[in-house]
Amino acid sequence: MRFAPGYRRFALPAFVGAAVAAVVFPPLGAALLAVGAFVLWFFRDPERSPPDEPGVVAPADGRVSVIRVEDGRVRVGVFMNVTDVHVNRAPVSGSVRTVTHRPGAHKPAFSKDSDRNERVDIELDTDAGDHEVSLIAGAFARRIHSYVAPGDELVRGQKLGHIDFGSRADVLLPPEYGSDDVVVEKGESVRAGETVLARRN
């Protein structure tokens, strides 16, 4: 199985500690071994294949937590629970225009206050208009890892980053999209790079 970058920083100390503790205090060794296994599972990076049908695909695994119109554009947000894959993917094909890190708070990613959380905004220039992907840190997330830079060409479903331990990923659709173009509902479970969130009617 493949893992997202950075997993060694969390998994290796747990496994090393488990090996040492197994000699002096086996229960602690077992607990640290379980922590290391959980880290590997959390950082899993499974293969994903975009669907044949057109449309904007989900940037993250999880449940749709935000569907709203702001300044004439529709935003669709996906909350990633601790059990979800946390590798994020491009919702559309296009060219990366900007990658902007914005410092902020670390409120729970499912709350309205999370709009002021630390985030990385990735603007994509596409044939269907400008799209923006926001990787938003959560209460326990302290690092957002972007894999892309301005000028990169992305295809729909390509990996563009991940967030450590709990978070949210949003897509801000072009002005040409309306609420009727969103084909998912709040609370619906989606898969990064595979589930279509919106398509032009």
Topology:
Blueprint: H1 7-24, H2 26-42, E1 56-57, E2 62-70, E3 73-80, E4 87-89, E5 94-102, E6 119-126, E7 129-137, E8 144-146, E9 153-154, E10 159-163, E11 167-172, E12 189-190, E13 196-198
Antiparallel strand pairs: 1-13, 2-3, 2-12, 3-11, 4-10, 5-6, 5-9, 6-7, 7-11, 8-10
Helix pairs in contact: 1-2
Commentary on this structure:
The chain has 201 residues and is an alpha+beta fold. It has two domains: 2-45; 55-199, Distorted Sandwich (Glucose Permease (Domain IIA)). The protein has two helices and 13 strands; from the N terminus they run ααβββββββββββββ. The chain has helices at residues 7-24, 26-42; strands at 56-57, 62-70, 73-80, 87-89, 94-102, 119-126, 129-137, 144-146, 153-154, 159-163, 167-172, 189-190, 196-198. The strands form three sheets. Strands 9-5-6-7-11-3-2-12 form an eight-stranded antiparallel β-sheet, with no helix packed on it. It has a three-stranded antiparallel β-sheet with strand order 4-10-8, with no helix packed on it. The chain has a two-stranded antiparallel sheet with strand order 1-13. A hairpin with a 2-residue loop joins β6 and β7 (129-137). α1 packs antiparallel against α2 (26-42). The chain is elongated. The mean pLDDT is 88. Its cofactor is pyruvate. It is a peripheral membrane protein. Its EC number is 4.1.1.-. It is found in: Cell membrane. This is Putative archaetidylserine decarboxylase proenzyme.
